[in-house]
């Protein structure tokens, strides 16, 4: 079912002409020519609705991605003034595929019913020839585009298609050029492999194959030697085709409509071995995709992101495809020399899609909504319309704009000769054949994957000209610089040449000789290399253990003493349950200081233990075996073996350098006051680690220690046991063993009286036994602990008792329990003699376990290791096995145990820290409360963080002064303790009132109070109100206050208030105070001193603030009063507040004696006399209270600063 669409739109381009540059926008307006004077040309066309209508999805030339080029070409024709603006077009188009019958019927109907003036052919291979006959019948011009490359359109004359306007290349010229290429390189034979459909009719490769056959048949120098069709690469037997090529062709034409199938076949060629330089593959561009897409990736690159997504196969064989691709030439029409190649063609394709949705097609969203890129064939459609416009221009110029002119296809075809630069290159149409002239190119990718033109074939005046663009050596780089031959010199099967046996098997002969030489050379090289490597390695290893004496620095005795004192100080600073590392180090330093053969040095900044073995001048040079032993010892790497650093051979003495272990030896640890050795875990871990070290030593080249003892078993900072002082037998042999060292030898070694070089392996367990015995036999005060073999412990009688027991034939266990006493009072030589003598009950140390939780099996193991007969003692492997059985089900990890102890201690410390922190926080709160009571919170917070409090100016504050009337007289009537109680009750009452108001108590001196409001936190004008309210509350509290010790006496209070500016700041360092400065403070003090008992005296400034800003205060003018230092001032009384009423009436003389009252009357009389003198008036009505405050004012002079 085909839908018919018709659209008639008249458009014109106004303004200056614009170039058709892809991506530029073109503005449209209503044509200036009146509609009555316009010429409308009707164009009929048929196009696919989508690309699948052609059956080849990748050859996109459908409505949505192509027809937008038509209005763009028309706009350019109008802009270039090739067509007048009065000429307009309307289009009638149909959806359809490449079916000839359907296309003929639809176009015929458009010509008859629509009155079409021109035809645009379907962009297919087979339909345009049929439509060409229809156009010739009606003498209508027909334009072709897309893949209309059929050779029939390029006829030898204009009689077949006289109305054809053709700018599309054709297969005929491509085939002729290909034959010329064969002739140029003298290739007389070639093969053809083409992709075909099931019937072998449709498709570009089928049409091209026909033209190849015709071109080959027209001459006699080139022939097709092999031809095969591939219908489906998934089912065809490609191996048969590959074998046929191998037997019959070396120059092969590969024509494929699908790039994916081309790649598949190329991989088949690679698998078949057709990948040598003898083969040349020519890939023609049968659908113009290659011509329009020359910049894309090579064949062997997958997932191209250019105009056409050719393939996205993930087979991982790009390298194989590249091998075939390097042997291939690309044969195509060269349209890359166009203006488009220098422009943004991607922008052009974007405009094509946009114009498809605009005039004149208005493609619906259902057909064009999913189109992403414009078709590459839209370039040909653009040039076809532009060429049609050029023919119309020439025809209009000759005969005018008339229907019989633009409907005359023959006339337009004859005027289709003017060349122009189109988007597909320079367009030139031949006069005779009415076809466009193209240039054929032979290209391929060079080593840098750049596409190079090697040859170009161009028709000039009917003749083919060949142009070489690059040197022939570059052209044949992929073939080793040699032009491949159509027929191999020895034939396709290789049997055409006589070859000798050596030549026939030359590769095998050469390979065998080379292989034999390589085997011998490699063997010699490996032998020499191994010997040289061993020598170099030995030299390097010798450098490791040879330590220059200049790099070592001895730690002197004074430095040891300093470290000892530091360790002692550190020890005293630690708690008793901590791990005392400093004490252990101190013990190690002591043992080093007391030994003449051991010294403490520093090497490369690290501490090390140095053993002295005599002068280097008397020592003989080291032998090869001795140096080998030093190398082996230097390379020892085991966690229970102490690191041997090397020998110093260039110093005054021969020195053996060992790694320093800060906790000393097992003997040092046992003799130290440390809690670790009292732990069963430490004993078990020491046993296990010592056995592991002995096992490693027995399996090493040294095989045994020789002089193993407790002082040779060191402990590092991680509490790991490390066996030290092993090896170096040639240095230890000349040394005479001391008597105490004999105690570490087995009985049989003592009997041989050797130096211990052949000590029994299993008996070295005694070292561990002795360490455990030392630990178990310790008395409680560990400071006095000594080994069981220590001299002077036992008496002579105990020794005799042991011999008596032996003679009596007691059992071994009974005698052994008494054997320990036999060593009392004996020196080392005597003990060694007793051990060497043996007997029925041999002498052994007494085992008295001090730890209750020590495994009993360990005691039995120790006794087994003390067996007299060497063959009855357990081997080290048996010892390790029995230790594992003892510790079955539990992990012996000393560091984990230490960490657990430290974690428990840390938790305890954390609890203590938290408790102390809580106590500290409580004390801090108390100190903060006390500090906030002494000065304002803002000031105190700044002082706490160390900030400096600068003096600050306040514009207006209200200062409060108060004083108790006749406080001295009251104090004289009470005892001092009563006075203190009275003041405490008064201050407590007043401080509570102050806390209810925004007031800051500056200080209290005796019976006087100084408060202020409005600083350090400003509160606007509220400071006057706060002071007034607090003053009223003070008087109310004093009204009900009674003195417990003087119930008949009343406490009276004078209050003075003044408002004004002042300065506040912190004064002093030892006892800082927050003080006020300024005349406002002095004036407030005068207000208080000139006030009357139980009255509030305020200044005019305070009166103004209260009366202006606040309502309800009862104020009364006192009149003018003489204020000391201020002169005459108008002051006021604050009587109360309207809400609470006036203050209770008080008799100002209550509690006064007659003498005091007379004194006050005299003062008032003196003041009235002064006023009469100053003003001449008697102000009897003015209340002049000559009370005790005025008297105090007259007695005290000067300003007041707080």
UniProtKB/TrEMBL annotation:
Domain Guanylate cyclase: 958-1088
Positions of the UniProt region annotated as Disordered: 1142-1202
Top EC class, one word: lyase
InterPro entries registered for this protein in UniProt: A/G_cyclase, A/G_cyclase_CS, ANF_lig-bd_rcpt, Cyclic_nucleotide_synthase, HNOB_dom_associated, Kinase-like_dom_sf, Nucleotide_cyclase, Peripla_BP_I
Cell compartment(s), UniProt: Cell membrane
Topological type in the membrane: Single-pass type I membrane protein
Any Gene Ontology biological process: chemotaxis
Gene Ontology cellular-component terms listed: plasma membrane
Domain of life where this protein originates: Eukaryota
Gene Ontology MF: a single term: guanylate cyclase activity
Catalytic activity: GTP = 3',5'-cyclic GMP + diphosphate
Entry EC no(s): 4.6.1.2
Residues of the Protein kinase domain: 514-900
Signal peptide: 1-19
PANTHER family, per database record: GUANYLYL CYCLASE (PTHR11920), RECEPTOR-TYPE GUANYLATE CYCLASE GCY-13 (PTHR11920:SF375)
Record family assignment: Belongs to the adenylyl cyclase class-4/guanylyl cyclase family.
Name assigned to this protein: Guanylate cyclase
Species of provenance: Heterodera schachtii
Origin organism lineage: Eukaryota, Metazoa, Ecdysozoa, Nematoda, Chromadorea
């Amino acid at each position: 079912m085909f839908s018919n669409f018709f659209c008639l739109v008249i458009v014109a381009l106004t303004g200056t002409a614009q170039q058709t540059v892809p991506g530029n926008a073109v503005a449209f307006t209503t044509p200036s020519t009146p509609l009555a004077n316009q010429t409308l040309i009707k164009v009929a066309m048929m196009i696919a609705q989508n690309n699948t209508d052609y059956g080849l999805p990748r050859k996109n030339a459908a409505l949505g991605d192509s027809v937008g080029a038509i209005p763009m070409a028309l706009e350019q024709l109008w802009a270039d003034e090739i067509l007048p603006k009065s000429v307009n077009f309307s289009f009638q188009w149909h959806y359809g595929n490449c079916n000839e019958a359907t296309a003929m019927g639809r176009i015929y109907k458009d010509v008859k019913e629509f009155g079409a003036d021109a035809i645009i052919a379907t962009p297919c291979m087979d339909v345009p020839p049929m439509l060409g006959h229809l156009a010739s019948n009606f003498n209508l011009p027909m334009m072709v585009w897309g893949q209309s490359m059929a050779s029939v359109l390029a006829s030898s004359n204009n009689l077949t298609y006289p109305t054809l306007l053709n700018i599309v290349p054709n297969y005929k010229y491509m085939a002729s050029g290909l034959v010329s290429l064969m002739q140029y390189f003298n290739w007389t034979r070639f093969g053809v492999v083409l992709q075909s459909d099931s019937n072998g009719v449709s498709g570009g490769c089928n049409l091209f194959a026909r033209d190849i056959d015709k071109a080959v048949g027209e001459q006699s120098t080139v022939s097709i030697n092999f031809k095969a069709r591939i219908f489906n690469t998934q089912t065809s037997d490609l191996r048969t085709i590959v074998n046929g090529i191998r037997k019959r062709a070396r120059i092969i034409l590969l024509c494929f409509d699908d790039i994916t199938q081309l790649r598949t076949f190329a991989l088949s060629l690679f698998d078949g071995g057709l990948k040598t330089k003898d083969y040349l593959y020519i890939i023609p561009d049968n659908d113009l995709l290659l011509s329009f897409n020359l910049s894309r990736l090579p064949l062997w690159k997958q997932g191209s992101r250019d105009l056409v997504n050719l393939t996205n196969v993930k087979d991982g064989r790009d390298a194989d495809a590249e091998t075939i691709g390097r042997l291939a030439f690309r044969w195509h029409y060269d349209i890359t020399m166009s203006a488009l190649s220098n422009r943004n063609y991607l922008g052009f394709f974007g405009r094509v899609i946009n114009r498809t949705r605009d005039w004149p097609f208005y493609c619906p969203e259902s057909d064009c909504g999913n189109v992403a890129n414009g078709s590459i064939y839209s370039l040909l459609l653009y040039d076809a319309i532009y060429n049609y416009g050029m023919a119309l221009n020439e025809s209009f110029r000759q005969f005018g704009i008339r229907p019989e002119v633009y409907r005359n296809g023959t006339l337009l075809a004859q005027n289709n000769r003017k060349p122009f630069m189109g988007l597909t290159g320079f367009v030139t149409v031949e006069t005779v054949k009415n076809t466009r002239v193209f240039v054929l190119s032979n290209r391929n990718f060079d080593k840098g994957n750049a596409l190079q033109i090697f040859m170009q074939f161009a028709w000039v005046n009917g003749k083919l000209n060949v142009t070489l663009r690059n040197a022939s050596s570059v052209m044949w780089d992929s073939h080793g610089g040699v032009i491949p031959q159509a027929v191999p010199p020895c034939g396709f099967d290789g049997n055409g040449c006589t070859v000798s046996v050596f030549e026939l098997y030359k590769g095998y002969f050469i390979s065998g000789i080379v292989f034999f030489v390589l085997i011998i050379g490699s063997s010699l090289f490996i032998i020499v290399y191994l010997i040289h490597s061993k020598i170099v390695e030995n030299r390097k290893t010798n450098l490791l253990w040879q330590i220059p004496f200049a790099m070592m620095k001895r730690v002197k005795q004074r430095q040891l003493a300093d470290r000892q004192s530091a360790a002692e100080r550190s020890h005293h600073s630690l708690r008793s349950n901590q791990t005392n590392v400093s004490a252990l180090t101190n013990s190690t330093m002591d043992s080093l200081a007391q030994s003449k053969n051991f010294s403490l040095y520093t090497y490369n900044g690290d501490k090390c233990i140095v053993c002295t073995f005599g002068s280097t001048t008397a020592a003989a040079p080291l032998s090869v075996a001795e140096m080998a032993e030093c190398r082996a010892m230097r390379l020892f790497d085991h966690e229970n073996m102490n690191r041997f650093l090397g020998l110093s051979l260039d110093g005054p003495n021969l020195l053996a350098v060992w790694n320093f272990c800060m906790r000393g030896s097992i003997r040092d640890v046992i003799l130290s006051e440390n809690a670790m050795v009292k732990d069963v875990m430490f004993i078990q871990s020491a046993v296990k680690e010592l056995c592991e070290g002995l096992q490693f030593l027995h399996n090493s080249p040294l095989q045994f220690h020789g002089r193993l003892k407790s002082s040779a078993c060191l402990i590092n900072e991680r509490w790991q046991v490390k066996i030290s002082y092993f090896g170096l037998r040639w240095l230890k042999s000349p040394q005479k063993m001391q008597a105490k060292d004999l105690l570490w030898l087995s009985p049989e070694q003592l009997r041989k009286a050797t130096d211990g070089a052949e000590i029994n392996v299993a008996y070295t367990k005694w070292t561990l036994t002795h360490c455990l015995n030392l630990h178990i036999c310790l008395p409680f005060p560990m400071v006095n602990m000594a080994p069981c073999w220590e001299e002077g412990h036992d008496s002579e009688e105990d020794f005799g008792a042991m011999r008596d027991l032996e003679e009596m034939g007691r059992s071994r266990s009974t005698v052994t329990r008494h054997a320990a006493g036999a060593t009392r009072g004996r020196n080392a030589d005597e003990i060694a003699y007793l051990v060497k003598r043996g007997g029925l009950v041999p002498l052994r140390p007494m085992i008295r376990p001090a730890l209750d939780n020590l495994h009993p099996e360990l005691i039995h193991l120790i006794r087994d290791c003390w067996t007299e007969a060497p063959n009855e003692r357990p081997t080290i492997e048996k010892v390790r096995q029995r230790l594992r059985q003892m510790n079955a089900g539990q992990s012996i990890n000393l560091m984990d145990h230490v960490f657990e102890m430290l974690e428990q201690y840390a938790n305890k410390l954390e609890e203590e820290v938290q408790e102390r922190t809580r106590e500290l926080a409580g004390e801090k709160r108390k100190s903060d409360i006390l500090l906030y009571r002494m000065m304002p919170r803002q000031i105190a917070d700044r002082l706490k963080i160390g900030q400096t409090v600068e003096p600050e100016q306040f514009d207006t504050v209200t200062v409060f002064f108060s004083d108790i009337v006749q406080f001295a007289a009251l104090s004289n009537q009470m005892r001092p303790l009563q006075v203190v109680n009275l003041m405490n009750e008064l201050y407590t009452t007043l401080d509570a009132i102050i806390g209810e108001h925004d007031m800051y108590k500056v200080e209290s001196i005796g019976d006087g109070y100084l408060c202020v409001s409005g600083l350090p936190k400003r509160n606007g004008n509220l400071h006057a109100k706060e002071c007034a309210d607090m003053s009223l509350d003070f008087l109310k509290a004093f009204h009900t206050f009674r003195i417990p010790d003087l119930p008949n006496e009343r406490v009276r209070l004078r209050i003075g208030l003044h408002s004004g500016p002042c300065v506040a700041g912190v004064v002093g360092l030892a006892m800082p105070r927050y003080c006020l400065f300024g005349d406002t403070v002095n004036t407030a003090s005068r207000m208080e001193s000139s006030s009357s008992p139980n009255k509030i005296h305020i200044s005019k400034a305070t009166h103004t603030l209260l009366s202006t800003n606040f309502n309800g205060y009862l104020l009364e003018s006192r009149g003018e009063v003489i204020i000391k230092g201020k002169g005459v001032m108008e002051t006021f009384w604050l009587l109360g507040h309207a809400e609470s009423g006036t203050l209770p009436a008080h008799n100002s003389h209550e509690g006064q004696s007659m003498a005091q009252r007379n004194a006050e009357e005299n003062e008032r009389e003196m003041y009235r006399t002064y006023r009469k003198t100053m003003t001449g008036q008697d102000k009897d009505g003015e209340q002049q209270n000559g009370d005790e405050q005025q008297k105090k004012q007259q007695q005290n002079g000067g300003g007041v600063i707080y």
